[in-house]
Structure formats: structure tokens, C-alpha cells
């Protein structure tokens, strides 16, 4: 998606294995890009 800064598509469920102290890479990357693109 060329007009979006970040895009993800997934058919697995990483949320079942993700923990607050050990997040899955998918969630870490999503939060990182969301913070970087926040208009503060």
C-alpha cells in the first residue's frame, strides 16, 4: 500500500504467544511505527 507508512497482513494469531514483557515482533513493529507517526 504505497500511501500508507506501514502495512501488515496476517493469518496467524501472535496475540496468543505475546506477553507484556516479551511481545511478538509483529506487535513491537506496529507500536514503533505508530509512535513514530504520531502527530504530537
TrEMBL record:
Gene3D superfamilies: 3.40.50.880. Pfam families: GATase. The lineage of its organism: Bacteria, Bacillati, Bacillota, Bacilli, Bacillales. Residues 3-33 form the Glutamine amidotransferase domain. It comes from Gracilibacillus boraciitolerans JCM 21714. It comes from the Bacteria. This is CTP synthase.
Amino acid at each position: 500500500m504505497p500511501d500508507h507508512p506501514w502495512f501488515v497482513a496476517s493469518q496467524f494469531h501472535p496475540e496468543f504467544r505475546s506477553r507484556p514483557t516479551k511481545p511478538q515482533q509483529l506487535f513491537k513493529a506496529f507500536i514503533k511505527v505508530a509512535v513514530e507517526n504520531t502527530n504530537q
